[in-house]
Amino acid sequence: MTGLSALEPVSAVEVQAAGVTELEAIEVTGEGGSTNRIEPLVRNKVSTAPESLPAAVSTITDEDIRTLNVGRDISNIYRRVPGVVANNIDQGDTGNGFRMRGFATNGTHGADVAVYVDGVPQNIPSSQGGAGHGPVFMEWLTPQMIKRVDVIKGPVSALFGDQNRAGAVNIETLDGGDVASSIGLDIASYDGRRANLVLAGEHEGFESLFVADVYKTNGYRKAAETNRDNYFWKLSKVFDDAKYSARFSHYESDFKNDGYLNLPALRAGSISRRDTDNLYGFGNANRNTIVVNRAPAYDEAGLYYTGYYENFRRVRAISNGTFTHNYGKDDRDIYGGRVAYNFVYPEIASLMVGADVRRDKGDAFRQQYRNFEPTPNFYYDFDMDLITYGVFAQGQYKPFDSLKVLAGIRYDRFDYDIDNLKFRNADTGYHSSVTTPKLGLVWTPIEQLEIFTNAAEGFRSPAAEYISSGSSSALPPSQTGGQINSSVRPSKVT
User: Where on the phi/psi map is residue 105: left (φ > 0), alpha (ψ -120 to 50), or beta?
Assistant: First the structure.
């Protein structure tokens, strides 16, 4: 017969006699309330982080990016940011458009938004092989390279220069210790193939990240091919209190694009997806970049510097007639650097002062092609040496715990040497400057509430075709016909 009985307490003496070790009691304490605690907001803190600015700032992390189907168009990363319109300009690797709500770009894709990667400006001035003045070409980036993207709406930061009128996009690449090695393979319809390899590791303090990405597709249309190779290698290490990094990237692309179909005709069945009503467009690109960086390793105070060199070559041919193309080409060497020092008085004030310089030297032209062959006629033809110098200061001060004052100022100077190879009498130099102040306040009456306001100016440099102008019709080179507009000023927005 089975019975039930209460268990008797066991004394410590009996436990020891049984050869069992008694553990001391563990005391667990906790606080009431929700586990979803609201973290203190950071805009009122003294920091160089973009989130500390008195403006709308959106941050995309590498974890966010891993949840996205980016595909062939890197612009898909930015489409989740409210108020931002990002897109691939056209079929093929033709560049990326960035627009921010409330700012018109007048059709010059990518202009008016300053884009930086690891401190290196990405906007290309006076591009003829792209889409106007200041376009951005981000196809060399893949999701496996990106650690963080900060989208700053408005020209409120003095750390960004040319094209920072509607705002800025600041991108930081990954280090070898931030990611695991991987391999991926995608196979899709219309001969779509993509393979990527990530090799990441750390040895004796050195972090290494290598990314290879090969993408090919034959496209949905008759002539809609894209062949793209990306290679990226970054090495970084902390020495004493500073983190140093060096990276190299190589991007190469070749593409065709068949234009756009007439949707009513396609629905009516009078044409097929393989049809085209004009010449297909085409292009290619080759881009090699070397970047070195230094930044404080453990806090925000200290010395920052960036140095870079880039060989940039891009061709884009757009059909503009039954037999003709507008064939644009950039062949440029771009190099420069930035140095800054951040003085920090914790929780009270900070002041970052610095300077940057960029030199862009090479050819940029648009030529008329007929039946895929060059003609002697040019729309534009420039040999340029564009040097931009900038100095900046940006400070923050908290007179009270609930109030932060921000102020910044930039001074930028342009020294250009422009040879107009289409109109030789319009050869000219250009020398001008622009000053853009920034001012903002952040008031935090309680921990979960921030009220902020700002007034700021941003600028956009003038394009070469504004300074040395002439007829944009397709004409052969001449000694006359051009015009010099040396009084044109950088355009500002407040």
Answer: alpha
Main-chain phi, psi angles of 297, to 5 degrees: -85, -30
CB 163 within 8 A of CB 123: yes
Tokens of residue 156, six digits: 């409120």
Average pLDDT score over residue span 422-430: 95
- The CATH number of residue 285's host domain is 2.40.170.20
Torsion of CA 236, 237, 242, 247, to 10 degrees: -20
Tokens of 41: 């907001």
Starting at the edge strand that comes first in sequence, how are the strands of the sheet with 146-153 ordered? 57-61, 146-153, 167-173, 113-117, 120-121
Structure token digits, residue 228: 């793209």
Query: How far apart, in whole angstroms, are the C-alpha atoms of residue 98 and residue 109?
Result: 7
Pairing of strands 206-217, 281-296: unpaired
Compute the distance between CA of residue 190 and CA of residue 217 in angstroms, rounded to an integer: 7
With H, G, I as helix, E, B as strand and everything else as coil, classify residue 78.
helix
List b or e across 84-107, with b for residues whose CB sees 16 or more CB atoms inside 10 angstroms.
bebbbbbbbbbbbbbbbeebebee
CB-CB contact of 108 with 299 (8 Å): no
Tokens of 303: 């010395």
Tell me: pLDDT of 104 over 80.
no
- Please say whether the beta carbons of 140 and 248 come within 8 A: no
CB 261 within 8 A of CB 308: no
What is the predicted pLDDT for the residue at 5? Answer: 39
Q: What's the pLDDT score for residue 258?
A: 77
**CB contact set of 163 (below 8 Å; sequence gap of 6+):** 111, 112, 113, 114, 115, 123, 134, 460, 461
The SS3 assignment for 16 reads helix
How many whole angstroms separate alpha carbon 216 and alpha carbon 254? 10
Is residue 217 within 8 A of residue 226, CB to CB? The reply is: yes
- What's the rounded Cα separation, in Å, for the pair 270 and 481? 47
Cα gap 173→207, rounded to integer Å: 13
pLDDT, one tens digit per residue, over 370-423 is: 999 999 999 999 999 999 999 999 999 999 999 999 999 999 999 999 999 999
Does residue 35 lie in a domain region?
no
Q: What is the pLDDT of residue 135?
A: 85
Residue 457 lies in a domain: yes
Amino acid letter for position 184: G
Residues 13-36: b if buried by 16+ CB within 10 A, e if exposed: eeeeeeeeeeeeeeeeeeeeeeee
Whole-structure pTM value: 0.86
Into how many domains does the chain fold? Answer: 1
* Amino acid of residue 478: S
Over the stretch 248-272, which tens digit does the pLDDT of each residue have?
Answer: 999 999 988 876 677 788 788 887 7
Q: Flag whether 74 is in a domain.
A: yes
74-78, 152-156, 231-235, 366-370: the lowest-pLDDT one: 74-78
Residue 26 belongs to a domain:
no
Domain membership of residue 348 as a residue range: 50-493
